Amino acid sequence: MIQKPGKLAHDVTSYRPISLLPVVGKLLEKIVLNRMREHLTQTIPTHQFGFREGHGTIEQVHRLVDVIGRALENKLYCCAAFLDISQAFDKVWHSGLLYKIKKMLPHSFFPLLKSYLENRCYEVKINSDTSDMHLIRSGVPQGSVLGPVLYLIYTADLPAHASTTTATYADDTAILSTHENQDSASDSLQQHLNLIEKWLRQWRIKANTDKSVQVTFTLRKHAHP
């Protein structure tokens, strides 16, 4: 466990775990991932730019800036919500993930990935002290090759909306709604957020309200909903 800079030493959330996994296991994961790649193109949505070849933060930022810039050029309102997920990779519901794997990937992957996720254990070491062994009941393995891809599969069915633009990078999500009328732009954004809220509850994911924000981009200087 590594203490985060400037954080209280007695607070358990002040520490970042560095996960050590066996090298042979990572080699096996790479082989499995290579077999999965051709199926992932049909599974991962086009708005997801995280952990995908040929995609990155720069490309996703360009996409967002383009939508906002076009709205300002055409004197439209652009209502946006930027969502952050709490402990995203650590809170993945195993039963829900296995359901989606069975639904989205060829059947041969299911028993392998089920075995990969189940009956994993961990222990925590701080300096010379080591904790007891505990069973991992949720989340994808930290520091693994397959972990990020499994998270993308788990969130692949994030609801879309016809009147908004969705942009995701791993667990960070941006929703943009543009319209000449500020109330209509805000209403479309709220409709999409309502769908996402219902989806989050269904799949046991929690948004971080402290890090999630709403912004209205416009050239008109007055109050906005």
Keywords:
225 residues; alpha+beta; four-stranded antiparallel β-sheet; 10 strands; globular; RNA-directed DNA polymerase activity; RNA-directed DNA polymerase; nucleotidyltransferase
What does this structure look like?
The protein starts with a strand and ends in an 8-residue tail after the last strand. Strand 8 and strand 9 (172-179) form a beta hairpin. With 225 residues, the chain is of the alpha+beta class. Helix 3 (94-104) runs antiparallel to helix 4 and helix 3 packs across helix 5 (147-154). The mean pLDDT is 92. Strands 8-9-3-10 form a 4-stranded antiparallel sheet. The chain is 39% helix and 16% strand.
Secondary structure tally: strands: 10
Strand content: 15-25%
**What kind of sheet is the major sheet?**
4 strands, antiparallel
Rough shape? globular
**SSE succession:** EEHHEHHEEEEHEEHE
Number of helices: 6
User: N-to-C terminal Cα separation, in Å?
Assistant: 43 Å
Overall mean pLDDT: 92
- Please tell me the total number of domains: 1
Organism: Eumeta variegata (Bagworm moth)
Protein name: RNA-directed DNA polymerase from mobile element jockey
GO molecular function, one term: RNA-directed DNA polymerase activity
Keywords: Nucleotidyltransferase, RNA-directed DNA polymerase, Transferase
List the helices and strands and how they pair.
Elements: E1 2-3, E2 15-16, H1 23-43, H2 57-73, E3 77-83, H3 94-104, H4 109-117, E4 121-122, E5 125-126, E6 129-130, E7 134-135, H5 147-154, E8 165-169, E9 172-179, H6 182-202, E10 213-217
